[in-house]
Design goal:
This protein has 13 helices and 7 strands. The termini are close together. GO terms for molecular function: DNA-binding transcription factor activity; sequence-specific DNA binding. InterPro entries: CheY-like_superfamily, Homeodomain-like_sf, HTH_AraC, HTH_AraC-typ_CS, Sig_transdc_resp-reg_receiver, Tscrpt_reg_AraC-type_HTH. This is Stage 0 sporulation protein A homolog.
Length: 243
């Protein structure tokens, strides 16, 4: 499910947006509402916002300031603006800022629906994120090692533990694993842990702390750090986008 933010200093207009559409039809959570730039910035800092629709002419500042801030700090967020006037200069400036679209007030339900469908189409995750990733081709003599790793992701996995369980020498493991798999043993274990975490985030309601322990990390903060390094987002952001 995706997150949508409406920004308008007219409280009546902003609140009316909560019920204008059935949000689940667009794979959207109920929208977040902000009545100004500071409140919008606070929401951005708390949750991932995938689409923002903002009024342009707001009391005390131009909505273009907010659009510029979003494009600087959250460039993946799709933005659109609301306006009472079909002004050419507004459209020109919006294009320069990379705005995805605009709506005239009063908001027409069909036009809003069309805009959101276009946004969701743009935001759709790559196919490999919505379906189970095809298994890596495993060389035959690595199968037992890989099987051991996948069955023990919740436990400490070391070169010594693998060799002890599979009755192979450490020199053999060190010599062959990187050559056969195209990455070091440590990197492969990390890849398996993160892939398992992604699966659990997509398919279960387990907390991040529980998932952290199920994939072999003792500390949620360290797990989050590694997860973000590998995926570009935090576990919660990943769940919001792909769950």
């Amino acid at each position: 499910m995706y997150n949508l933010l409406f920004v308008d200093d007219d409280q009546w207009i902003a609140e009316s947006m909560r019920t204008i559409l059935n949000w689940e039809d667009f794979s959207l959570n109920p929208p977040y509402i902000a009545y100004g730039m500071e409140q919008a910035q606070e929401i951005f800092q708390k949750v991932p916002i995938h689409i923002m629709i903002s009024d342009i002419e707001m009391l005390g500042y131009s909505g273009f300031e907010l659009l510029a801030w979003v494009h600087e700090h959250y460039p993946d967020t799709l933005t659109a603006f609301l306006t009472c006037h079909a002004r050419f200069d507004f459209a020109q400036k919006a294009i320069r800022l990379g705005v995805f679209g605009y709506l005239l007030k009063p908001v027409n339900e069909q036009e809003l629906a069309d805009l959101l469908r276009s946004c969701i189409q743009r935001l759709k995750p790559p196919k490999e994120e919505t379906e189970e990733t095809p298994a890596r081709q495993i060389p035959k003599r690595m199968e037992k090692i890989v099987d051991y790793i996948n069955k023990n992701l919740a436990n400490p996995i070391t070169r010594e533990s693998i060799c002890r369980e599979l009755y192979i020498s450490e020199s053999y493991l060190s010599r062959t694993f990187t050559k056969e798999m195209g990455m070091t043993l440590v990197d492969y274990i990390t890849e398996c842990r993160i892939n398992k975490a992604k699966e659990l985030l997509r398919t279960t309601d387990l907390t991040v702390t529980n998932i952290c322990t199920q994939v072999g990390y003792n500390y949620a903060a360290y797990f989050t750090k590694i997860f973000k390094e590998k995926t570009g987002m935090t576990p919660n952001q990943y769940r919001d986008q792909y769950g």
